[in-house]
From TrEMBL:
Annotated coiled-coil segments of the chain: none
Pfam families: AAA_lid_14 (PF25601), Sigma54_activat (PF00158)
Matches recorded under InterPro entries: AAA+_ATPase, AAA_lid_NorR, GAF-like_dom_sf, P-loop_NTPase, Sigma_54_int, Sigma_54_int_dom_ATP-bd_1, Sigma_54_int_dom_ATP-bd_2, Sigma_54_int_dom_CS
Keyword terms of this UniProt record: ATP-binding, DNA-binding, Nucleotide-binding, Transcription, Transcription regulation
Domain Sigma-54 factor interaction: residue ranges: 347-576
Protein name: Sigma-54 dependent transcriptional regulator
Transmembrane segments: none
Length: 685
């Protein structure tokens, strides 16, 4: 029986809303997993993940040293080939190795991947089924994982007992059809290395070891050394490098097949950090014409004791140019340079509060001055920062760094970069920092209030001198850089508490912009709802129809503590559950929004309209909204077992913001003792 993404979406919506399994729309093993998740009480809308268990991770990695050595070459190769996360689990489904092409991906490393906690996925299903599995999109039980595509292959002993698995996961796009075969072959190759003993280095002496993986992959792929000499190519690459294997190993240069407008070094330079394909000109037979073949990925594979090599993955050709064209290939745009809301729309808003923000953006954008954005979580600080960059006319990239998401040491290397060998574990060729990478453009420092005080001194020096010095270097590089910073914290309170330097504040806040909360610009809610409806309908592949007017009015009655970000999440949830905007009724909304809307439109409220002035009406509405928030918080407290961190995460706010809001609502949390007599940061009423 054939199953599709559309089938999975239909089946998932039916199961979440009615507990019904549509047997011809979902695979039996997936349906069985959904039923187990439901029976264990797992909320499909939950978003929490375990924190890394550092001590256990250290113990596991020490115990499985031999496994790590045997799996590392294959995992590195698969990561570069597919551009995806590759992880290794033991028999307890503990992730003790994770390789990722992303700068930071801490979600599963050092945690247990158990069905009762994370729901249906390749990493949980493989332990149950004990066979190679694949899980895509809406087959995942939890909505937060439904952008993922994953495969897994088990390690089984001679008696069929499960003792771990190799997992491949793509957070942003579907893995290719051959991904499961690649994962299974990856397990076989790691087992071959594990038992190789003294033959380990011999097996990896050339890239021939990876030939079985390369032959399975359907996209044109090259393996080259760091000088651009071809080591291996798969069959789909043959049209562009037709006689590469007529030469001895590593003797033929990739440059022999490239058009004159680009060298191997150009290809590597243009592909570094790019998130869109880079056009690479290949010669077309013996003629002077060239064919532009998009390069999707280009990454280095480093294996201990083996000469490093590069994996270059291409797409199918673009239309053939009939005559030779001598031009410099366009510089690939990075995701960070692209507008998040389309080609011409920077943001949505027509209220006076938002028009004031727009006017200020237009005024300061062309001027090279630093800007500090202040506002609650979800008010659109990064959206405004991107608008400032786009309207500035600056030619360099827009580079965003979340100062609160990175550990202190990693934040320093991310911002400043480092020279080769600057510290233990540093790459031999060093790394370019975000300051240098944003040269000529805009650097967005989000959550600047989280930056350690000692690092603030280094940032101040960069701003004062317009230059940066890499870690481990004595040479400063001049910069043409604009900095836009943002925080949701009370910056003046941080200064008073000596947690933020006043001199840095004055340097950053040459222009200070306070972004209004969504509840302060309620007339923009219908515009935002329709915008998100159109955008998300296309992403979810559902019909685009307007939300009913009563539903939009109900959304306007809620106070939106998570602001625009929370509104977008609610619109997305409604579209997933109902299939299109026109079907979204009041009953489709989260209970806390439906309750507030019902209270605001009840009979007693309507009768008050004639006897109360506008100020009294607003006070009454605020009281009703507050009561709705209290009900929401009590419900979340029950669902999260009083865990402050989980409640704050569900609401999209910080723990401090949550405490502040609870205080404003007259809710008084108290600290309780758990069973071990330890103080626990949990809410009890």
């Amino acid at each position: 029986m054939a199953y599709s993404d559309e089938h999975a979406l239909e089946a998932w919506k039916a199961f979440v809303s009615t507990n019904t399994i549509i047997e011809d729309k979902v695979r039996p093993e997936v349906a069985a997993s959904w039923l187990r998740c439901k029976a264990m009480g797992l909320d499909p809308w939950s978003s929490g993940f375990e924190k890394e268990n550092t001590s256990l991770l250290r113990e596991k990695r020490e115990r499985f040293k031999a496994s790590l050595r045997a799996t590392a070459p294959v995992m590195k190769f698969l990561m570069r080939l597919l551009g995806s996360n590759v992880s290794l689990m033991d028999g307890e489904n503990f992730v003790f190795e994770l390789m990722t092409p992303m700068v930071l991906y801490p979600r599963t490393y050092g945690t247990f991947m158990r069905e009762k906690d994370v729901g249906t996925g390749n990493a949980t299903l493989v332990a149950t089924e004990r066979k190679p599995v694949r899980v895509d999109g809406f087959e995942h039980y939890r909505a937060i994982a439904q952008s993922y595509s994953g495969v897994a292959a088990p390690y089984l002993d001679v008696d069929g007992r499960y003792y771990g698995s190799l997992n491949i996961n793509s957070p942003f796009r579907n893995l290719p059809p051959e991904a499961l075969d690649l994962c299974v072959e990856g397990v076989r190759l790691t087992q071959e290395l594990f038992v190789a003993g003294a033959r380990y280095s011999q097996l990896l002496a050339t890239v021939e070891f990876f030939k079985p993986l390369l032959s399975l992959y359907q996209a044109p792929t090259l393996l080259v050394d760091l000088e651009g000499r071809i080591l291996h190519a798969n069959a789909p690459m043959r049209p562009w490098c037709p006689d590469w294997d007529a030469y001895s190993y590593g003797a033929q240069s990739l440059g022999a097949y490239l058009g004159k407008s680009m060298t191997f070094r150009d290809v590597v330079r243009l592909s570094e950090g790019a998130t869109e394909p880079v056009g690479v000109p290949f010669k077309k037979g013996r003629s002077r014409a060239t064919v532009e073949v998009p390069l999707v990925r280009c990454g280095k594979v480093d294996i201990d004791g083996v000469e490093p090599f590069m994996v270059m993955v291409f797409e199918n050709e673009r239309p053939v140019e009939e005559a030779p064209v001598k031009r410099k290939p366009a510089k690939p745009r990075r995701d960070s340079e692209m507008m998040p809301t389309g080609a011409t729309v920077d943001y949505i808003g027509e209220t006076e509060e938002w028009k004031a923000i727009d006017a200020l953006v237009r005024k300061v954008a062309p001027i090279r001055t630093n800007v500090l954005l202040l506002g609650e979580t979800g008010t659109g600080k990064e959206v405004v920062a991107r608008a400032i960059h786009r309207r500035s006319g600056r030619k360099g990239p827009f580079v965003a760094v979340n100062c609160g998401a990175l550990p202190r040491d990693l934040l320093a290397t991310e911002l400043f970069g480092y020279e080769g060998g600057a510290f233990t574990g540093a790459r031999e060729d060093g790394a370019t920092g975000k300051f240098e990478f944003a040269d000529g453009g805009t650097l967005f420092l989000d959550e600047i209030g989280e930056m350690p005080v000692d690092m603030q001194v280094s940032l101040l020096r960069v701003l004062q001198e317009s230059s940066v010095t890499k870690l481990g270097s004595n040479t400063a590089k001049a910069l043409d850089l604009r900095v836009v910073a943002a925080t949701n914290q009370d910056i003046q309170r941080l200064i008073a508490q000596k947690q933020f330097r006043s001199d840095l504040y004055y340097r950053l806040a040459m222009v200070e912009m306070h972004l209004p909360q969504l509840r302060k610009r309620r007339d923009d809610i219908p515009l935002l709802v329709e915008y998100f409806n159109e955008q998300l309908s296309a992403q979810l592949n559902v019909p685009h129809t307007p939300f009913p007017e009563k539903t939009v009015q109900a959304l306007g009655s809620y106070s939106w503590p998570g602001n625009v970000r929370e509104l977008r999440n609610v619109v997305e949830r409604c579209l997933i559950m109902e299939g299109e905007g026109a079907r979204v009724q009041l009953s489709s909304l989260p209970f806390y929004i439906e309750n507030v809307a019902s209270s605001a439109s009840s009979g007693p409220m309507m009768s008050l309209e004639w006897s109360l002035g506008s100020e009294a009406l607003e006070q009454r509405a605020q009281a009703l909204r507050a009561e709705g928030e209290r009900r929401q918080l009590r419900q979340l407290t029950s669902e999260c077992d009083g865990d402050f961190g989980r409640i704050a995460e569900r609401l999209g706010v910080t723990a401090d913001e949550l405490r502040g809001r609870m205080g404003a609502l007259g809710l008084r949390p108290r600290i309780v003792l758990d069973d071990e007599d330890d103080i626990s940061d949990r809410v009890r009423w």
